[in-house]
Structures are given as structure tokens and as C-alpha cells.
Input
Amino acid sequence: MTLTENQKNLLRWIVKEVRAGNLKEDSIWYIRNLTDYGWVDYKGSDSWPPVTFATFDILEEYGYIKWQQKSQHQYKGTLTGKAYEAVDSNFAEPNRSAIPHIIPLTEVEHLDSELWERVRFSVSAGGDNPKAWDTAIRNATVVLEDRMRKLGNIDNINQKATGNGIVNLIFGSNKSVQKDKLPSEELEAYRDLYSGTMKLFRNRYAHRFIDPKPEEGGEIIVFINLLLKMLDNLDWETENENT
Output
């Protein structure tokens, strides 16, 4: 069981007001009856979040408040050190500041335009359909292979220019397109990355039906999108060297 956002907000408010001196740490006292309700001896002017005695019970279960008096009309108790720790750590929730930077990667307008054009018809058949993702990934790997051909000005008729052969013509250690443009270690890293991708994805999806889970299919599409961007960056750097 975890606290709801309303329960967290109530504890945050209590801790804030205690720190401000508007509530007594050892006398957190709330009353509710037919004629009155509110915090006894509260010196502040801030409006408080919704209060229920059920929430008070839950806060005690978590060890944030120790109630000395409990009845159908009032709760009076003491705030614990654990309450401050929980609030200061945002209830030990992970830092989510990276989320806005991850989300755009899954927005189609950020995908390579050719990639999206080739996969959208497949996935539009149903995002939960593994067969649709099988076709989408197969098309995506063809886009990747075609982009490498363009980067290397490789003739489609060239018998060497299939699968891993294309990778070696671009990133190989002997007379490749990028040989004199990248440090040897970086050239090798590119070759390993794209060679592995061709073997693991291009070859597998070209020769048999895989039907991946939809979440896996989406991740592969985004990964291939990254590989396309890396190729485009290399192409851009080459063009600028020649101008």
C-alpha cells in the first residue's frame, strides 16, 4: 500500500506549518463536530488540504504521526521524525525530471521521416498486433540498409553490398568510405554496432516471422531511428568537409 496524493499533500502541509511555527510538533490537534472543525491553536492563514480521520489513521500506520487521543470528534498527537524524512525525500519517489526528455523520443514527429513513412501503415493496423510490428521492423531495417547504401554510394547491383557487406564497405578497416574520416577505434565501434544490428534485426526479420511484443517492436523502431540519425550526422560531416 502507498499513500495517495491527497494523503501526501496533507502530511506535506502539516510538516510545512510545523516548521513555520503555526502548529505545535507535539500537539497536532484537529477537531470536527457539528458546530466546529479545524486545527486547534493554528496560527497560520494558509488553507489546508482535505482532512479525513481515515487519512489520519493511515498516516499513523506509516509512522508519520503518533496519536495520543482519537475519537469520533478529534485527533491529537505528535509528528514523528519519519514524517520530515518522508516529505524531504518526496516520499522516496524517484527523480522524474528526465521524463520530459524521454517522451519526445516516442513522438512520431521526432522520428526520421522516411522511417515513419515506411512503418506507419503497418502499425496503423493495430498497435497491439505483433504481426503489424513484425512488418514494421522489417521495413525499418530496409530503410536502414538503404540509408547506408546512400551514405556509401553503393550500387544495389554490387553483390558485396548485401547485409554485413554494406557495413564493411562503409566502416571496414580496408579502403572503406569512412576509413580516413574516423579514428580507427571509432571506425571499429561503428562497424560493430551496425554489423550487429544487421545480423540481429535485418537478417532475422528478413528471413522469418518474428512477431515481437508491441513494446519490443516500438523500442526497436526507436533504436533504428537513432542509427539513422547517426548515419545522417556522418553524411553531414562529410558534406561539410567537401565544401
The first strand starts at residue 28 and ends at 32. The chain has nine helices and four strands. The CA atoms of residues 6 and 50 lie 7 Å apart.
